């Protein structure tokens, strides 16, 4: 006798579909369970990706990607002073090196005096990171002398309106004990407010301020912000800086850190979602096994009519596959619905709080495809045992089974 | 041993109730010491006008497949066939070492009281149940040695099966049930539905093609089952208690249809029943009691029967 061709998939599909349709409630519950698992998985993973993208975007927007920060690990050997600055400026890829000089000092207005921080920077420095953004007013020019920008804490210290630029002048004085006798700067006009909320500080023009400081007691720069022309310059420029003995902190590093943290979060969310699917698949296993018991007679009849063991096995696996595909598809749809509901909730909240709703979910196609694939895989694995059991049923015992 | 040879006609035509002494003795021996002659056997003999004998008395003693060459027109040959269930104290032999031969074109009715093992015998012939000992050959191929593929071919092409409880597939329409064997043989959908519809029409069920089994009466279901057993045009029809779940009228329709399949279409039929009414259709009766078999010899070619 010749070899027998396997049952065609196109013939198998309607049989499997018919079996699912015959017990509609049970099939729907099984598919629903798988779908719910897939939905939870997709929801959590897209939320994880969404939050990561949101965080990274806010980091990227806060500073330009074309900049990095140079600091030092050892102020004695690799001091961040004029020499250090000129060393950094020598690096060809570096377009601009903008140092930040921080000294302790005092501000006076009338008979009010307060200890403050004096930050000396170049005009280009403003806006390079979140805290140096100019909130109101305008930055000073390089040649300006008696002007400054202040923080809101500084205004609070002098009990001034923190939303407006005050139309008064201050006297500034660097700490005499630490830096020797420094000329006080008289009648400094406030030109604007910077976003820095960390301290009561004033931002003054660096070139003018440095001429006032005595060379001996002069402190080193806190850090140097470096600007490069293209993103490709970041890598060689930062390596060059490191080779000169300094330390760099790039946005790319920050993004990497965020990515690391979020990859842990995402794994956790993924595992939670996978648990949901596995719980659902246990339910599916139960369903398929019960369905097998119910259809024992039918399998017996099929075998008596000449359906081979391998065809019976494939029939059951096809059924499991159908449950997997339907569960995956419905699950992804359900996940979209959950996402929509979440966004809607946030929109309502945003309406009340007058905020804006960020993009919370990122639906990458490969993520959705993997969720679908995972659903089909789990369903197929679940189907193996019932399929094998069905294939090995004794036809006569099966036919007698009622 | 000897080839399976036909005894002379005069021996086979022994008059009713006139069983030779030695045969009766052998029969009593086979019945395990039951000395009284089975009244049913007498009744059957009366009805058939032939005497039933254990196969050992019919010129085929101690058949062994090795020694007997395959004869032309021989469909089934069973040698020392035994089916037992259980083990130890629960060990029970349902079929006790019977041997027989079925030739092409025969209409064999396996008759016996319920629990006598007649359905088990049919299941073994259909390859659905393996024998515990002994051998069954279909056209000289040992069924118990079939691979899964060979068994599938046997079921798909050689035989048509009809069951007492119809055994239609509940999830399929009548038409799809009939088309099922054709689907297995890989026929294109259009063609197999066309053929199946023709077959349903032949059994007067064309208008019920789209109905599901639970929407059909018992008689209709059994006719669908018959249509399914015949759609792939098997030479051999194995029928298990076809009228067991039917009323008299529906039973008559089904039985006359089966008779027609034998007389007009020359199909070989093996039918299991416990209804003596149907013995008249048979060319040969297998009387099974307590796992033993009594029968007559196969008829000679061209011999008339009613």
Shape category of chain A: elongated
Largest sheet of chain A: 6 strands, mixed, barrel
Query: Which structural class do you get from the secondary structure elements of chain A?
Result: alpha+beta
Based on Cα principal axes, name the global outline of chain B.
globular
Q: Number of helical runs of chain B? A: 9
Distance between the termini of chain B: 35 Å
- Low-pLDDT residue spans of chain A: none
- Average pLDDT across residues of chain A? 85
Write up what this structure looks like.
Chain A has twelve helices and ten strands. Chain A has a six-stranded mixed beta barrel. Chain A is elongated, with a radius of gyration of 35 Å. Chain A is an alpha+beta fold. The longest helix of chain A is centred in the C-terminal third of the chain and has 45 residues, at 309-353. Chain B has 306 residues and is an alpha/beta fold. Chain B is 32% helix and 21% strand. Chain B contains nine helices and eleven strands. Chain B has helices at residues 9-12, 21-30, 39-48, 118-125, 148-158, 174-184, 189-202, 218-230, 248-263, and strands at residues 53-54, 74-85, 92-103, 107-111, 133-138, 141-142, 159-162, 236-240, 268-273, 284-289, 292-295. In chain B, the strands form two sheets. Chain B has a seven-stranded mixed β-sheet with strand order 1-11-10-4-9-8-7, sandwiched between helices. The two termini of chain B are 35 Å apart. The A-B interface holds A 1-5, 7-8, 11, 15, 18-19, 21-22, 297-298, 300-310, 394-396, 399 and B 123, 126, 128-129, 148-157, 161, 163, 165, 167-172, 180-181, 183-184, 186, 189, 228.
Short descriptors:
heterodimer; A: about 400 residues; six-stranded mixed beta barrel; B: about 300 residues; alpha/beta; seven-stranded mixed sheet; four-stranded antiparallel sheet; about 20% strand; globular
